[in-house]
């Protein structure tokens, strides 16, 4: 229970119990206090369980002073405790950052019986207070997340007993806070822009260094955008900045969340649209007295300046001196949903320096090869110049790694280069560091492609919209300035700027960017349109329902960016492997360099050279970089297909699903009744039957009547006189002087018109899980009409594809069993379970989960308990639905179940590429290590091999961004 939807559902259910008085909700604490006159609370628990609420009774008793006694003290206060909570402490070696904490919270908090979670990330410990019979369900959930957890010590919360009961209670009989306390909330969140942080090596270095600061609570990395969000309890972010700069990170404060005593000035700067202008502004403003932080949004050309000045005029003047014509804007406007600067950061001067370094390094090799000594002055001079031009950054990073005792690839390369120089191999030292620098730059450009795949999501929505003004004129204005309820016009061929509802006009809209639909969708008045979609033909006018920054497209882009910050299980494995592998190889290289010359008479030069080659080969770059690139590419590829995945964890877990539970209504079917058959049983033509039936039912609000009216369409109705509703049977009325009846079998029997053919048709339609009604006069039946919730055209194909992928589909529905079996037969499902209440669905999911990972497909709200219990929760038709996008693990943006097997196939393809990359990276290292040990590999050949491996795994991961959509299991490799 954490939102108003659940509160409304609980109020509606408990209001049906006559002895229930007032209800008091505390949504943040997930508590409900009920005043009632029931002899015991079991009917309350049963009622809550029926609507899918996982409920436990804390205490019952009298309310004193507005506070009920807590469970720890209820014995002393005259209440009764339902269950005694236990505390289990788990050691979770994989749990080392707040992303893992968030994933564990999302998995464990919905568990029935889990009361409190307390995390100690530094010690890798998790304490769980619960009322479960054992800790096994918690261990299962942790292992399902890819966490290698094991049970530590167990304690039990002892009930107070006389005479010490009062000692355990706080004032007024409330429990001691230590028994029910929750971790203190973090103070501030500061976002930093770190221009030279773009790979997992820098992330690992920052994690290690900032982890030493006591006041740091959480680090959220966004490598794709070079951002770091730090939750801390510092009065000032300066210590974080100092710590980052100590390890060579070029960091600046970009945004501070929450209330700030500083003033804010937001500028609209028309001439600011690329990183060059951003750099100019940063240089001009960061040294300005009183300026605390800068936040850039190049997409909307806005700059937000946090300052402590009494007047913003010095800031305005500084911007004007750059010739940028700033316009001071209302600071109350919403902030952009996604930061959109994704520049590579590789300048023309860097390319020129690397080109010069390459000429000098290769020149040194040529001079040495032509007969000059490798330690001659010209060769050494050219080599030193090449190292200074192309390798100084690597050497700086290597020094920082040594100073912070971080064994990363920069340190390995630095040691190899310095070692080569010390043994006189100057040309090779220059070539090695130059090739490594080139490899780093090419990798950065490769990563930019993954970044740009996400940026393209934001580029879909135009920056301007044609808005109707109060005087009736249509004017082109900035999309971010358009208010809610404004009227926007979209001409043929234009992109839609904001979410809204069509007011006038008709057209076909290409919704592929949002829902992944291949065909344009017809739009008429009352239909929803989304920002970023394309108006194919006809002019549409729509009313704005979401402002810039709050549209479905913004939420998708925000979710994709958030998802990339979560480390997938494979990435956690690679990080752990690299953390052990690198020091082992370093120690092995030292042993190779020292042991043979000291103990076996080997030549120092030969064995030191072999050790240096091994160090270069051992560089874990290819291994470390392959996973995040592949995962981000997979997330972006899924989003482009209309599948919104909330993290690398779920992208990887999708391939392991063994079964999928499908809700019937709204998932396999359209979720609304429609007219399926009209069978005349007398001489009246079918068109006349429909005209009479629709004319009568147009005056009724029954869902069956609505389906018949919709089936008739927009054709004119007949005039109905003396209309009358017949309770529980149907309706009647006069048309053209004739009295007609339309209703169920009971009405037909009462009229005496339920002949054998009519009864046969009614039984036939009932066997097909359809609702049938009879149109009749007082003398004879005229026709039988059937209404049903029709199956989606895509459902049968989706079920067939799931089976081909080896995933067993199971239907779980609250509808009657006959209807469930009929729908299941149509789509090809063999396991259909009907008449299920929410808690029955929970039990079904638990049983399926015991056989292997299980997915649950629903609408993201009504099926929330089952969605939370499943390994992966899928929300159907999430486009435009805030709740589904925010809560589901995977949101299928279109009402097309075929997206589900497409996601599983994509997940298998991602898994195949990850395995191939890891195998290739480790295999390459092993082969070249053997070659190095036997003396068949040189330093420059080693760096070429490492560079080649890194680029191959990156490009292999980027293949996921290709246009072809995986549709079957063959895509898994």
TrEMBL record:
One Pfam family this chain carries? Hydrolase
Cellular localization per UniProt: Cell membrane; Endomembrane system
Task: Describe the reaction catalysed, as an equation.
Answer: Zn(2+)(in) + ATP + H2O = Zn(2+)(out) + ADP + phosphate + H(+); Cu(+)(in) + ATP + H2O = Cu(+)(out) + ADP + phosphate + H(+)
Q: Which UniProt keywords apply?
A: ATP-binding, Cell membrane, Copper, Copper transport, Ion transport, Membrane, Metal-binding, Nucleotide-binding, Translocase, Transmembrane, Transmembrane helix, Transport
The Gene Ontology CC terms held by the record are:
endomembrane system; plasma membrane
- Is the keyword Zinc assigned to this protein? no
Coarsely, its chief localization is membrane
InterPro entries named in the record: ATPase_P-typ_cyto_dom_N, ATPase_P-typ_P_site, ATPase_P-typ_TM_dom_sf, ATPase_P-typ_transduc_dom_A_sf, ATPase_P-type_domA, Cation_Transport_ATPase_IB, HAD-like_sf, HAD_sf
- Superkingdom to which the source organism belongs: Bacteria
Q: Where are the transmembrane segments?
A: 376-395, 407-423, 429-447, 580-600, 612-639, 913-933, 939-961
Q: Where is each HMA domain found? A: 1-56, 86-150, 188-252, 263-327
| Molecular functions per Gene Ontology | ATP binding; ATP hydrolysis activity; cadmium ion transmembrane transporter activity; metal ion binding; P-type monovalent copper transporter activity; P-type zinc transporter activity
Q: How does this protein lie in the membrane?
A: Multi-pass membrane protein
UniProt-listed NCBIfam families? ATPase-IB1_Cu (TIGR01511), ATPase-IB_hvy (TIGR01525), ATPase_P-type (TIGR01494)
| Annotated family | Belongs to the cation transport ATPase (P-type) (TC 3.A.3) family. Type IB subfamily.
Quote the protein name from its UniProt record. Copper-translocating P-type ATPase
Organism, scientific name: Caldimonas caldifontis
The organism's lineage is: Bacteria, Pseudomonadati, Pseudomonadota, Betaproteobacteria, Burkholderiales
């Amino acid at each position: 229970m954490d939102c108003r939807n659940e509160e409304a559902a609980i109020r509606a259910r408990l209001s049906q119990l006559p002895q229930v008085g007032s209800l008091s909700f505390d949504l943040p604490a997930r508590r409900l206090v009920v005043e009632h006159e029931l002899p015991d609370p079991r009917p309350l628990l049963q009622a809550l369980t029926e609507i899918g609420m996982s409920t436990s009774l804390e205490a019952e008793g009298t309310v004193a002073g507005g506070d009920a006694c807590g469970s720890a003290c209820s014995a002393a206060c005259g209440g009764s405790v339902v269950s005694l909570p236990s505390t289990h402490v788990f050691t979770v070696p994989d749990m080392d950052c707040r992303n893992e904490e968030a994933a564990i919270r999302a998995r464990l908090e919905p568990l029935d019986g889990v009361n409190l979670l307390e995390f100690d990330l530094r010690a890798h410990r998790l304490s769980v207070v619960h009322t479960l019979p054992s800790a096994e369900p918690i261990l299962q959930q942790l292992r399902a997340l890819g966490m290698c957890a094991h049970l530590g010590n167990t304690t039990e919360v002892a009930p107070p007993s006389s005479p010490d009961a009062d000692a355990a209670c706080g004032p007024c009989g409330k429990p001691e806070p230590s028994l029910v306390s929750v971790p203190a909330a973090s103070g501030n969140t500061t976002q930093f822009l770190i221009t030279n942080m773009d790979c997992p090596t820098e992330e690992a270095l920052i994690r290690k260094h900032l982890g030493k600061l006591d006041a740091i609570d959480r680090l959220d990395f966004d490598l794709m955008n070079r951002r770091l969000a730090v939750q801390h309890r510092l009065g000032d972010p300066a210590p974080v900045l100092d710590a980052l700069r100590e390890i060579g990170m070029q960091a600046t404060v970009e945004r501070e969340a929450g209330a700030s005593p500083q003033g804010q000035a937001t500028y609209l700067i028309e001439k600011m649209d690329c990183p060059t202008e951003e750099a100019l502004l940063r240089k001009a403003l960061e040294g300005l007295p009183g300026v605390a932080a800068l936040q850039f949004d190049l997409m909307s050309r806005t700059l937000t300046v946090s300052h402590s000045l009494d007047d913003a005029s010095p800031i305005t003047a500084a911007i004007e001196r750059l010739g940028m014509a700033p316009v001071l804007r209302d600071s109350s406007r919403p902030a952009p949903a996604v930061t959109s600067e994704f520049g590579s950061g590789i300048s023309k001067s860097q390319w020129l320096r690397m080109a010069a370094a390459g000429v000098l390094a290769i020149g040194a090799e040529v001079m040495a090869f032509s007969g000059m000594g490798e330690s001659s002055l010209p060769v050494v001079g050219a080599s030193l110049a090449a190292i200074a031009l192309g390798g100084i950054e690597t050497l700086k990073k290597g020094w920082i790694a040594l100073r912070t005792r971080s064994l990363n690839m920069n340190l390995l390369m630095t040691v190899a280069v310095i070692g080569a120089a010390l043994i006189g191999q100057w040309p090779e030292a220059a070539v090695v560091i130059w090739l490594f620098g080139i490899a780093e730059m090419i990798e950065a450009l490769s990563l930019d492609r993954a970044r740009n795949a996400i940026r393209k999501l934001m580029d879909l929505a135009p920056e301007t919209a044609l808005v109707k003004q109060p005087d009736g004129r249509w004017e082109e204005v900035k999309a971010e300035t358009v208010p809610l309820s404004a009227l926007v016009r979209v001409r043929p061929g234009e992109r839609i700027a904001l979410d809204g509802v069509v007011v006038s006009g008709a057209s076909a809209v290409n919704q592929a960017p949002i829902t992944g639909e291949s065909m344009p969708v017809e739009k008429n008045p009352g239909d929803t349109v989304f920002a970023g979609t394309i108006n194919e033909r006809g002019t549409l006018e729509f009313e704005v329902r979401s402002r810039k920054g709050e549209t479905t497209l913004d939420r998708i882009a925000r979710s994709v960016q958030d998802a990339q910050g979560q480390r997938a299980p494979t990435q956690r494995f690679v990080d752990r492997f690299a953390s052990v592998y690198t020091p082992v190889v370093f120690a092995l290289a030292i042993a190779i360099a020292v042991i043979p010359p000291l103990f076996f008479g080997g030549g120092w030069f030969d064995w030191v050279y072999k050790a240096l080659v091994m160090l270069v080969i051992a560089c874990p770059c290819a291994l470390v970089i392959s996973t995040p690139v592949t995962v981000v590419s997979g997330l972006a590829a899924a989003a482009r297909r209309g599948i919104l995945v909330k993290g690398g964890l779920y992208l990887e877990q999708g391939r392991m699903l063994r079964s999928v539970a499908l809700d019937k209504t709204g998932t396999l079917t359209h979720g609304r009744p429609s007219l399926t058959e009209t069978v005349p049983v007398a001489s009246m033509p079918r068109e006349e039957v429909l005209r009479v039936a629709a004319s009568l039912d147009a005056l009724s609000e029954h869902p069956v009547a609505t389906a018949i009216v919709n089936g008739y369409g927009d054709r004119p109705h007949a005039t109905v006189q003396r209309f009358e509703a017949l309770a529980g049977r149907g309706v009647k009325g006069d048309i053209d002087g004739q009295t007609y009846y339309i209703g169920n079998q009971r009405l037909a029997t009462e009229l005496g018109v339920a002949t054998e053919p009519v009864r046969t048709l009614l039984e036939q339609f009932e066997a097909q899980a359809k609702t049938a009604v009879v149109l009749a006069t007082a003398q004879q039946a005229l026709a039988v009409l059937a209404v049903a919730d029709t199956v989606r055209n895509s459902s049968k194909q989706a079920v067939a594809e799931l089976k081909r992928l080896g995933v067993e589909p199971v239907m779980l529905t609250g509808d009657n069993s006959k209807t469930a079996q009929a729908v299941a037969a149509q789509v090809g499902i063999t396991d259909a379970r009907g008449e299920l209440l929410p808690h029955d669905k929970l039990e079904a999911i638990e049983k399926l989960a015991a056989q292997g990972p299980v997915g649950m497909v629903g609408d993201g709200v009504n099926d929330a308990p089952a969605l939370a219990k499943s390994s992966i929760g899928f929300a159907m038709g999430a486009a435009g639905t805030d709740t589904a996008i925010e809560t589901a693990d995977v949101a299928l943006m279109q009402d097309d179940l075929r997206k589900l097997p497409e996601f599983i196939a994509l997940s298998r393809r991602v898994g195949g590429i990850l395995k191939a990359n890891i195998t290739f990276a480790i295999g390459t290292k092993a082969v070249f290590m053997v070659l190095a040990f036997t003396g068949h590999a040189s330093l420059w050949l080693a760096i070429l091999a490492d560079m080649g491996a890194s680029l191959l795994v990156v490009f292999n991961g980027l293949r996921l961004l290709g246009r072809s959509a995986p549709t079957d299991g063959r895509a898994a490799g």
